[in-house]
Amino acid sequence: MLDKHSESMRSFLTHAGMCLIKKSNRSEDSRLELDEEIIRTNRLIKLLCQHGPLQPRRCADLMNEKYGYDLGRMEIIEMFKGFRISQDERPDMLSWADDLGRLFMRTLETGKVEDYDAFLLKRDEPISKRRNKHLDIQNRFACLKLCVLIPELGKTEQGEVVEKFGQVFAKYYLYDISDGLAEYCNAGKNHHAKAAKAGRASEDETGKRKIAQLEKALERSDMMLRDLQDEFDQRLEESKIKELVDFFSRLNSDKYGRILDELLNIRRGVSLLKKQRYELPPEIGGLLILTQKLTQFVRDSGINPIMKPQEVKQVKATDIEFCDYEGKPFATKDEAKAIKVISPGWIYTDKDLQIARPKVKEVVGNE
Asked: What CA–CA distances, in Å, run from 203 to 21, 185, 208?
């Protein structure tokens, strides 16, 4: 049974608290980290760490109930996409976080170096195949999972500070927690060190250990500053991409008559007329050239349709999770239905970003 009032546990929580305050102060100085989107995403991750895998609708209900948001199913799906892990990888991520949490608690209960070794091994185990060290959500899952298990790790007098941490601060706070856990296990300057034969390190050994810890802290601070700069550059690039995505999203909005969809329809119609050897009036030649150039501009910008317009195919509910679906609800996850693509949806191929969701309709009878 974990004793939170023991001297070693109080020392561990004090270490974590000091590191949390330092990270919090740096976070307050960084506009990059004070993003409402980061806070909202961290709260969603905490709910997943508490409740396990949840459907988007259930996530939205819990977020709205606990934090006073007004989120819907599609907003949660967009947040899931922001995790940069596939739908199949999400359960693996949560399972990994659960395993890490169990090893963390076991290490606190036993104080054994071998348990700490197992914790470190699990911490550094990659989950996503598409990892980017500056955009890796795995560190946030790990950090928030530990804060769910030991709430004191995420709180200061200013409240839930850890909710403000993006990828970089979460990563280095996780390292701070790991360092504190090493000290908790009497691991010395590295976690393989053995306790002194007399049961107590000499003053010289203690001094050397402190120097090594300070050198390690300085090196890690330098690494964190470099990572923060890299993350800032990355997010600056993302903001430019977002502007591009927003532009094409507006082009395909109802307000502007779904211009991207209409370009496809015109191309398909003209191609059909040419196959039928229909002579197009010369008066519309300029319009066809304009359509051709617009289509080329869209393609050159990396914008492509997701589905084939008017296509009819069999799908399951998971196949159209990111689509607007019109029809009767799927009875089970394995039920298959015939659907027709009403609007193909659009994607920014270079960055795998969805611009417009496909619209599909259930095919009933002889439709």
From this structure: 29, 19, 9
